[in-house]
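Report of the visiting student (M.T.), summer placement. My assignment was to run the structure pipeline on a short list of targets and document each run. The first record concerns HTH-type transcriptional repressor YtrA.
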Amino acid sequence: MKIKFSEKYPIYIQIINIIKKDIVLGKLKEGDKLSSVREFSGKLKVNPNTVQRAYQELEREGITYTQRGMGTFVKEDNEMVSQLKFEMSKEVITTFINEMKDLGFKKEEIKDILLKVLEKEEV
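After the run finished, the structure tokens were exported:
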């Protein structure tokens, strides 16, 4: 697993986002066990403490849970997965809209462009 980490954000945040994306995409399903901290840090070539911090944050957010001696698992909660999907899509859309506004586009122009692109493209 070769991941190129960005300099913009802390690595543990990027690891959190990788795991969240895998959940939304169905690569990680409810109840699935995450790789051990040692195994995942080895794959990503990062300090195990960085992966541990990501896992702790995911648990704090209610996305995973840890069973002592067993590992860390994706929480079995359809609502959590739906909420995660919504939050991630909202973040993508907000970034897109802000970048369009930075280019000088108004709300109506953004809507028109988006509709034209959606009509031409298979999404």
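The two ends are 28 Å apart (CA to CA). Strands lie at 64-67, 71-74. I thank the supervising group for their guidance throughout the placement.
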